[in-house]
Write a structure and sequence with these properties.
With about 400 residues, the protein is of the alpha/beta class. It is about 40% helix and about 15% strand. The chain folds into three domains: about 140 residues, 3-Layer(aba) Sandwich (Cobalt-precorrin-4 Transmethylase, domain 1); about 90 residues, 3-Layer(aba) Sandwich (Rossmann fold); about 130 residues, Cobalt-precorrin-4 Transmethylase, domain 1. β2 and β3 form a beta hairpin. The radius of gyration is 23 Å and the shape is globular.
Amino acid sequence: MSETYFRRGFGLKSEIEGQLTADYASVVVDAFRARGNGLTVGPLTFRLAKEFGFCYGVDRAVDYAYETRAKFPDKRIFLVGEIIHNPHVNHKLEAMGIHSLEHDPGRPFDFTGITAEDVVILPAFGVTVGDFKRLRELGCVLVDTTCGSVLNVWKRVESYAKDGFTAVIHGKYYHEETKATASQVEKYAGGKYLVLRDLDEARPILDLIEGRGDAAAVAAKFAHASSPGFDFTKDLERIGIANQTTMLAGESLALAAEFKKSFAARLGDEEATARFRSFDTLCSATQERQDAVLGLLEDGVDLMMVVGGYNSSNTCHLAALAQSKGVRTFHIEDALCIDVDGGTLRHQAVRAKAESTEGAGWLGAAKSLGLTAGASTPNNKVGETVVRICQVAGLGGELEKALA
């Protein structure tokens, strides 16, 4: 820790605890926990996933942001992008005078106007090597909330670049975390990266590794998702796998297995071992939330509700996981997506980027409702969702009795 760089907070937890509780706590969620994560309201039974909502990394980032405001009450405070992918949390910070720095996708953040007298918070996703360097050169106070799980992936990617391996990152090339992760190769001359969203995107890369395919066509297809000057005839000779921490764990593992198989098919097992590396960089909190959803579904639910930001990768994957098991699933941003008066429901369809609306009666004959929330969703948004579902079902009074 220096006078201008902080990663461990300011020891002000007791000073901000009351505000955090007021902003994010939920008596409904407390009731679930007191009853073994289940709550019966009239004919409806709600079952809350054992692991849901704020993870350690998000908790830490939000705490540090609140502590920063308390530590520097008279300074201008800026946030690089969003602290996490939840609109309510980001709006709370904005109301506290912590101003988000926005930027156009594909372009660097504009730090014009930031001075050495200002404070800048780095989000849980981290920032790119280039952005970090520019901020340090400005001399401003930096409060770094980058999640430890993200830092673990960075170390792997950095080690790949150091040893001359191309980092193949399972993730979304436009996501802040993936951009920051990919940038770690810049620490070594000649460092290379390639970002792949899923196994379908990986197929043409696997073909090249096995000696098939058109390298020029592949280069054109992945120009937006690879490091500058990436040579698809040379830079796939040695590969190290990493992942965006919020991706589906099964998909990351399957992707790594296919790369290893392609190296072995072309070069044999011994040479494949020398040219291919894969370390477990899966986030434990992401894994736990995915496992908790699977646990809910194994016990059986009629309907699955997933609460969290539409731009939250881990939340979207929870919804996709539930739907992949054949359960009717709705991903809502918050309880306001449920229209009590009209009975309708706004939601983001799985793997879509736009809202759609379900008409009145969307609950159907469901009696058992599964409920989970992304790692960036505060408890109060989960509780408010239960309240609105009960109101739509005409069970507001029954809920009050259940909570008594």
